[in-house]
Specification:
513 residues, alpha/beta, TIM Barrel, Membrane-bound Lytic Murein Transglycosylase D, Chain A, 3-stranded parallel beta sheet, 29% helix, Glyco_hydro/deAcase_b/a-brl, LysM_dom_sf, lipoprotein
């Protein structure tokens, strides 16, 4: 039986979400940062996800996404997969918000397992990590549920210190005012602020410049893990390739280790999770994450244990008695290479296998670190035995095009990681196919390298960033200085009524990138 004060706290927390939460009796639930400012987003991935990334990247800041698997959209949709990978690669933090945005205190233990494990499996497949952090939907948590999640799944449970109110009817202006308060705070204090990437008032406030304003006022924008001085993930492998298990809805059976088992180990007397991790060169926590049914300190003999990816290639030995030695190989034994191939632009595992007459899957098996659809140029690739003795060659067309913009470009955009032609066309409101047509034939629309100069042709709005001017933006030159452009372009990108020598605060302006 919980004390009356605790019951009253839980009831208040669920009804009044806009107030900072006081966690009485929940010693293991965190609601604020140790330092700096964590600007967090719930309920994604959703349509504004990439733009949120861009807003923080532009300000050298980081953000945290507490994501669902199947809520406003399916996490396995290809657009979502690519957006999540972009966030991960750019250093933003991914965390759990349960599979279906469930009220955790209303679920059985088995249902809680489903909500956590199915989403963990999706993160393993998409980016090769298991998030260490979980935010319960609706802030719905109690002592029993928190203890179960911490002990069974090893999650750090976080709520928030400040709620923008975007999910409870708050307007865009209220969200803007909410974040402006922290920008103007003096002295600056730690905050863990809550917004939702599915709520128009949340993402429209971002479009209006909340992130820019915080950064310009000296607020350090960091992830939840960074502001708590800890790690965000358990690393269990690289990006996986889509298969029939990448779906939402329907029935679901957990794949051991989220489908990342490279072998099954049969336990022996004296084994613990820590000893198995040491034996296979795995990071702490990875065995329990891949085998959630285990009691790490009391593993029964002959239990089949999933060994996830991420171990070393060095064989380790452990002595079980003075006269007996047990030897195990790691989870990814080193292959025998017949040669090393240096990758070229456009290579995939399939194209290399075709070039060397190898069976499908053999390149990834010999080079487990690879992302088969995005192999970097000049990567050394192990070529295993089994191919033809004659190397097949491919001819790369010679292009006489230069990297500069075509004469009809209205501007040149510098690509960032994760860009595709379709994304750039969307941002600039251009018709499909126009980016490929305006740029050299060597541009791979599905795999555009960061820092590539992209010609932006006529026909779109070009307004990739809609800002609201700050009190210090009294001229076009001041606005241009903040966004790395020129006063002349600020004037050209905006209506003719804009007086560049007398810009009013809170004026909506367009900035192109």
């Amino acid at each position: 039986m919980f004390p009356a004060s605790f019951v009253a706290f839980v009831a208040a927390a669920l009804v009044v979400r806009a107030a900072p939460l006081e966690k009485k009796g929940l010693a293991q639930v965190i609601s604020n940062c140790n330092h700096d400012f964590a600007y967090t987003w719930d309920d994604g991935p959703y349509t504004a996800h990439r733009d949120i990334n861009s807003a923080f990247n532009r300000n050298n800041g980081k953000t945290t996404f507490f994501m669902n698997g199947d809520n406003w959209s399916c996490i396995y949709n290809e657009d979502n997969v690519q957006a999540i990978r972009q966030s991960f690669e750019q250093g933003h933090m991914l965390a759990s918000h349960t599979w279906s945005h469930a009220h955790l205190t209303q679920l059985s233990d088995a249902q809680i397992d489903y909500e956590i494990q199915r989403l963990d499996e999706a993160f393993v497949k998409i980016v090769g990590v298991i998030p260490k952090f979980l935010r319960p939907p609706y802030g719905d948590i109690d002592e029993r549920t928190a203890s179960y999640i911490q002990q069974k799944h090893g999650k750090t449970i976080v709520l928030w210190s400040d709620d923008s109110g975007d999910s409870t009817g708050g307007s865009t202006q209220q969200s803007i005012n909410f974040y402006n308060t922290f920008a103007n705070e003096n002295p600056k204090r730690p905050h863990m602020a809550l917004s939702h990437e599915t709520e128009p008032s949340g993402y429209n406030a971002m479009y209006s410049g909340t992130v820019d304003n915080l950064a310009s006022h000296g607020v350090q924008l960091v992830t939840v893990a960074q502001c708590l001085d800890t790690d965000a993930y358990i690393y269990v492998g690289g990006y996986q390739q889509r298969d029939s298990s990448w779906y939402c809805g329907g029935s679901w059976t957990p794949s051991p280790g989220g489908g990342t088992c490279v072998q099954t180990y049969t336990s022996k007397v004296g084994d613990t999770c820590a000893s198995i991790e040491s034996q296979f060169g795995l990071p702490s926590g990875s065995i329990l994450a891949a085998n959630s049914f285990l009691n790490c300190n009391d593993i029964w003999v002959n239990t089949p244990i999933c060994i996830p990816r991420g171990g070393t290639t060095t064989t380790r030995t452990s002595t079980t008695s003075p006269s007996t030695t047990r030897t195990s190989t790691s989870s990814t034994p080193a292959p025998t290479c017949v040669q090393t191939y240096t990758s070229k632009a456009g290579d995939t595992c399939a194209s290399i296998e075709g070039q060397f007459g190898l069976q499908s899957g053999s390149i990834l098996a010999a080079n487990s670190f690879l992302n088969c659809q995005d192999i970097w140029v000049n990567t050394p690739i192990c070529i295993p035995p089994g191919g033809s003795t004659t190397t097949r060659t491919t001819t790369t067309p010679t292009s006489t095009s230069t990297s500069g913009p075509a004469p009809t470009c209205v501007s040149t955009y510098t690509a960032v990681a994760g860009d595709t032609c379709a994304k750039i066309e969307y941002n600039y409101e251009l018709p499909a196919g126009s980016i490929q047509a305006a740029n050299p034939s060597w541009l791979n629309c599905a795999d555009i390298w960061a820092y590539t100069p992209i010609c932006i042709p006529p026909g779109g709005s070009g307004c990739t960033l809609k800002i609201s001017t700050a009190s210090t933006d009294r001229t076009c030159a001041a606005v241009a200085s903040r966004y790395g452009t020129t006063a002349a372009l600020i004037q050209a990108w905006n209506p003719s009524w804009l007086n560049c020598n007398d810009v009013w605060p809170n004026t909506p302006l367009c900035v192109r990138h």
